[in-house]
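Teaching assistant here, posting this on the class forum so everyone can see the example we discussed in section. The complex has two components, and the goal was to see what a joint structure prediction looks like when all of them are supplied at once.
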Amino acid sequence: MALPVEHEALTKAFSGFGVNEKLFISELGRWHSEQRKVFRKRSEQFFIEDERGFERWDHHHVALLEREFLRFKTTLVLWTMHPWERDAGLANEALINGPQSYGVLIEIACTRSSEELLGARRAYHSLFDLSIEEDVASQVDGPERKLLVALVSAYRYEGPSVKEEVAKAEAKILYNAIKNGVSKKPSEDDEVVRILSTRSKLHLKTLFHYYKEISGHNIVVDFDVDMYLKQTVECMYAPQTYFSQVLDAALRDDADEAAKRALIRVIVTRAEVDMKEIKEVYCKLYGVSLSETIEAKAHGNFKDFLLALVEKGQSD
Amino acid sequence: MATIVAPLQHSPVEDAEVIRKACEGWGTNEKALISVLAHRYPHQRMEIRKAYQDRYREDLIKRLESELSGDFERALYRWILDPADRDAVLANVALKNGKVDYRVIIEVSCTRTPEEFLAVKRAYMARYKHSLEEDVACHTTGDLRKLLVALVGVYRYDGDEINAKLAASEAEILHHAIKENEFNHEEIVRIVSTRSKTQLLATINRYKDNHDTSITKTLAGNRENVLVDSLRAAIRCITDKQKYFEKVLRNALNKSGTDEDDLTRVIVTRAEKDLRQIKDLYYKRNSVPLEQAVAKETHGHYEEFLLALLGN
């Protein structure tokens, strides 16, 4: 006879990320029909009592289960994929998903190097027979279009040369744009978009430093008024903080599917870039290690694979 | 097709020697310079530069800059550069000379292929330690900036696919925007600056089918409006660049006091590409061969150099 404790373990194995294949094999695989019937009767969240005298799988839960089984495959495919194809696919997916996913466009445009972003744009041509800028320009409707098109079109200088006076002057421009934020939305301010989408990252680092001198605050704090600008600035000023926050949101119990998908995206795309730094920041922010949290929330092969990627930084 | 006449084989070392000899002593033997440099393809010119550097421990370009002056020097300097580097220099000059010469920016960004233009952007960064986008952005303002930054930032899809339905709908968007005098309309800039060249051509053709007149004619009325003029130039550069270049040449030569900048730029940048077709168009349109018009309006070594590039 099946025991309630095992039911509980199984129920838990259906939640969170991925599936606990070993548990299913060792438990469900052993049960005979009477035990499975008891399981169905006791698991109201998975099975509905049908009027014609049997317990019917709740289709919504079957779909959820399918999705959790898929996570390992998705991670594997994404991990083995060329980074250009990966970024192009992620960008396209974000575009299709609509405004709640536009942050992924900003993430890709701002955290990749100039050549990586260019590569993604090439791959986009191959995959979709369109340029990413034409797709973003024609699909995005709202005022954020200007910023998004500018960011995905960027091919920034990556050398060491920075003009301090220009950075200082432009810090002032950004500061004023925020101050006037009530009358004119900063993300629609041409100067703000120009500076954030064309200047080199080194120039922007210098600019952020001057900004703090002028405003007394970190620019991320001041740009809080505008979601897209805030994220743009976060990605360029403190990408590891940004990624830690995304991971935290993905690993929460109340995370929705969009937030959950970010777990795979961030780990796969940063595993060989700055995962070590992200882990440090995550720990500082949330008081627990990323690996521990993944261990608690994910199951089975998916969990093992993620942990392997997360731990990759260790031996470097 | 190209108009320059160049041998398939050459000896970079011998060429370098000829050039050296032409620069030695009093004065310069410009004829000798022209006889070599005007008759070499880009990769050959690069080899000559290298051979000259190796042999004489001097940058050939710097040497020529000190030996020559005026229109001839400017033309030869532009000619000798590698094409991507040349375009980068042209773009930079267009931005830094007080009043932005937006036509040059449009020409460079719209008549080169996406890959060629990418090479231009890389060359620009290597030379000026800034991206072309950031320089265009901070030297322009308002609606013109919007268009130019978009044209310079785009990395167009270069496939042959045409979406006919899209062409139809975007032709209508353009029609509507122009009718309403909304030239700064974000949609016009979006379509012209992001769509692939093939798709844009299909859209322009559809516009012509629907409205019995070409979009550039509809935009022609407003010459003083810089944005409208730019849009027209961009569309013409993308959809029929040889015709566009013919017009630039015609205007440059017809002006009282020829516009040498425009003349040099078009001849130098197209001599290895499609100057032959442009020459044909010029003859058809003006009833005189381009060489004749150039000979009439220019003189000295500058004239000789241009004629050499034209295939003489």
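For the discussion questions: Chain A has 19 helices and two strands. Chain A has a mean pLDDT of 91. Think about how each of these relates to the inputs above.
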